């Protein structure tokens, strides 16, 4: 091969390499532009979606004073009233009067509505919106409740305990109440107890002291369920730990309410299956 041929070959080879380089460079640039546009569009959509998402209530609710904190008594009154209302329909012979059930439903709905209005009035919770019911977080919360129940069950087996006194009382009440009333009374704990034991301490009573709010919320829920021995203390203590931790992390009343409601609904299914 002569010098001219070598030069011609080298020129053709480098020209070919250059064209291949330009080709791949164009592909890379084109794909980068597509990637950039897609991601920018996604980012824009995500930002717009985030703007549309309702904000959770702030960790430090503004404007709370000792006078507004005293309104917590009103919430306690409504909670206790709602707990006492099922007695209207109670009948040990199983003969339930329709008008008494209707009266219960009316008064119970009033307690729920007044409690909700109270929480909104003092900016303790946001208005209800489907975006607050986040299925993934609800599933995680429910799973943690299930794990706490497994641990409690093992403790009961080790200590030779069969259930808790609080649950025995609930089961006894269930036998003398109309099924509808019993279901409403039990599952509604997800609403009232989360307002009293989580929202109250975190957003009203100790809104400036989140650690104190967490301790108080955990202790109040545990004590309110009347543990009588180590096993029952651990049962309600672990439940309180899960629900209090969930609220401390997300500050989402509707999330806590959903987890609590589903857990009690599971208990209701067990009650009627074993009845």
Summarize the structure.
The protein is about 75% helix and about 0% strand. It has helices spanning about 5-50, 65-70, 70-85, 100-120, 135-160, 165-175, 180-185, 190-205, 210-225, 230-250, 255-275.
Please give a structural write-up.
The chain has 275 residues and is an all-alpha fold. It has two domains: 1-52; 56-274, no CATH class. It is built from eleven helices and no strands.
Lay out the secondary structure.
Layout: H1 3-52, H2 66-69, H3 72-84, H4 98-121, H5 135-159, H6 165-174, H7 179-187, H8 189-205, H9 210-224, H10 230-250, H11 253-274
Tell me the number of structural domains.
2
Number of strands: 0
Instruction: Label the structural class.
Output: mainly alpha
Q: What does the radius of gyration come to?
A: 30 Å
**What is the helix tally?**
11
Main sheet overview: none
What coarse outline follows from CA principal-axis ratios? globular
Strand content: under 5%
Instruction: Give the ordered list of helices and strands.
Output: HHHHHHHHHHH
Taking the alpha carbons of the first and last residues, their distance comes to 100 Å
Mean pLDDT: 81
- Percentage of residues assigned to helices: over 70%
The low-pLDDT segments are: 31-43, 49-54
Features:
275 residues; mainly alpha; 76% helix; 0% strand
